[in-house]
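Incident log, support desk, overnight shift.

02:14 A customer reports that sequence design results differ from what the structure should imply. Their input is reproduced verbatim below. On-call engineer (initials T.W.) acknowledged and began investigating.
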């Protein structure tokens, strides 16, 4: 991959198109603290989609019924279809969107409202679709990091921070699609609401390789790309990390490309660098 084949204007600035399919939105304009605050709020907001999946979809053993698809055109994480309906979270606009037969029929802006307001809105959409609404109140089957919105505080993430988070997800989707294009057995790319990461799985004989982006967590405040394998390699017998990558061994073992390292590259090289480093990590862990 070479530098930008073209640059086109977008709401977030210049988007760099790498080759035929891979585009890249500039990131790094928002402080880690502000970005982390937006990430925590969006992590809680996306649990509305988890509740819909738990209440109205067939439960699958691997929990993939709760997995979310990235919709590039709308900048949105989309839940699975419930008949003709589905719901999504548009991260940049911090809003929930209800779709029927692919068309938007209702929007709920979260900023200034609380989780109970969001649940009531989702119940109204379910009722309008002819569904009972009680299943939406089932508790989550996992815990996520705390945030004031979980205790009734209104959503308040800044538009600039939400836009930055959306750009990270869009970039991650582009990188993963580029890698997936050469992996015939790769799983679909999904956002997993428990950890809020966008990822896919690659089978490697007795091993499974996980490739994805975390928008930040208890280990890293800023987003990072990662490659891990299962069964996990022995942390005491790891080879040297390739250039630009580092080993993570706290809680799980894998190679990470941090935001700090990625942003050291010129913006028109960041997409190619991310793809190249992910492929090198996959090679080493396969």
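02:41 Re-run completed on a clean worker. Output:
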């Amino acid at each position: 991959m070479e530098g930008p084949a073209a640059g086109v204007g977008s709401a977030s600035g210049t988007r760099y198109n790498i080759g035929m399919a891979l585009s890249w939105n500039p990131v790094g304009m928002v402080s880690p603290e502000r970005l982390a605050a937006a990430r925590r709020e969006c992590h809680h907001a996306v649990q509305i989609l988890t509740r819909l999946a738990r209440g109205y979809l067939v439960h699958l053993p691997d929990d993939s019924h709760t997995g979310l698809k990235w919709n590039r055109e709308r900048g949105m994480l989309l839940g699975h279809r419930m008949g003709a309906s589905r719901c999504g979270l548009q991260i940049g606009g911090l809003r929930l969107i209800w779709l029927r037969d692919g068309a938007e029929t209702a929007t709920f802006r979260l900023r200034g409202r609380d989780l109970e307001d969001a649940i009531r809105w989702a119940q109204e959409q379910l009722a309008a679709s002819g569904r009972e609404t009680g299943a939406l109140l089932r508790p989550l089957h996992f815990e996520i990091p705390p945030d004031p919105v979980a205790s009734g505080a209104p959503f308040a993430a800044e538009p600039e921070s939400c836009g930055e988070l959306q750009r990270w997800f869009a970039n991650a989707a582009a990188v993963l699609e580029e890698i997936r294009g050469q992996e015939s057995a790769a799983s679909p790319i999904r956002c997993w609401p428990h950890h809020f990461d966008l990822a896919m799985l690659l089978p490697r004989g007795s091993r499974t390789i996980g490739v994805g982006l975390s928008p930040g967590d208890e280990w890293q405040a800023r987003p990072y790309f990662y490659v891990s394998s299962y069964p996990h390699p022995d942390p005491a017998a790891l080879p040297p990390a390739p250039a630009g990558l580092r080993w993570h061994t706290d809680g799980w073992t894998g190679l990470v490309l941090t935001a700090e390292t990625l942003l050291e590259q010129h913006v028109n090289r960041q997409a190619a660098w991310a793809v190249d480093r992910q492929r090198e990590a996959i090679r080493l862990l396969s």
